[in-house]
Amino acid sequence: MSDGNFNRQLLPKTDLSTGLRAGKAQMRAKAEQAFKEVLAEHFPQTTTEEREAILKDFMERLRK
């Protein structure tokens, strides 16, 4: 008969919050790559320095 306690061995090895952070990091990396591709495709005349500055600003706003 269960007394309301559970066996921790039955739980997954990672915490839910760890999984959420990993998922966010993956989506942030995908967003960064997609944004780089869009910049290169739609703004080919910009310099590498300008693209890096735009990407840096985008990533800072994404983290907020």
Give a verbal description of the structure:
- The mean pLDDT is 85.
- 67% of the residues lie in helices and 0% in strands.
- The chain is mostly helical.
- Helix 1 packs antiparallel against helix 2 (48-63).
- The protein starts with 15 loop residues before the first helix and ends with a helix.
Attribute tags:
rod-shaped, 67% helix, 64 residues, mainly alpha, 2 helices
Short description:
By secondary structure, the protein is an all-alpha fold.
Helices and strands in order, then pairings?
Elements: H1 16-42, H2 48-63
Mean pLDDT across residues: 85
The level of helicity is: 55-70%
Quantity of strands, as a count:
0
The low-pLDDT segments are none
Amount of beta strand: under 5%
Give the overall silhouette.
Answer: rod-shaped
Largest sheet: number of strands, sense, barrel closure: none
| N-to-C CA distance | 48 Å
| Alpha-carbon Rg, integer | 20 Å
Element order: H for helix, E for strand: HH
SS content category? mainly alpha
Structure annotation, total helices: 2
